[in-house]
């Protein structure tokens, strides 16, 4: 059996777990809530986005509490995170493309950061290594991102819930939306810098082994 076959077998050992299926569900929901949002079914899209965020919070807790950590899960969870976050950012860019030009440029930086991390993870996997595990700042940045972005989509300018009379008075101003987005962006780049030492260390160790 080749080294590639060994790696694939190792990756899919004990893959059939609840946390992994939650990741599959999260990935499957991405095109659904994106399409619903574009078609202006805002309430349904908003509910599905919350469900996706909840699966992200649950999968790691379940994996650790019930000893369901798997090699596939270690890769699948960050991939699901990245895809979900990029989808939400693109939704917000489309939503505020004309009405809030400054915000869309800030959001483009999110995509740049996520693409850097995707490329870094792909480089490690191409060299037969596992992507760097999430650090504390990465988890904090992800949680803040979901909370802030969902709030913006819900009660930001022309938000999903502001169409309901009860929530109409809760609508956030452009200034508040921009501040929330900038805070999320700063935390995202802090988490990126937190990954850097582990990423560089893995590359050095791989080079030394060769």
Gross morphology:
globular
N→C terminal distance: 21 Å
Alpha-beta classification: mainly alpha
Radius of gyration: 19 Å
- Arithmetic mean of pLDDT: 82
**Percent in helix:** over 70%
Let me know the largest β-sheet: none
What would you say about this model in short?
The protein is an all-alpha fold and 210 residues long. Helix content is 77%, strand content 0%.
What does this structure look like?
By secondary structure, the chain is mainly α. It contains seven helices and no strands. Mean pLDDT is 82; it is low at 1-6.
Which features would summarize this protein structure in a list?
mainly alpha; single chain; 210 residues
Layout: helices, strands, pairs:
Elements: H1 3-11, H2 18-38, H3 42-65, H4 71-95, H5 101-126, H6 136-155, H7 174-209
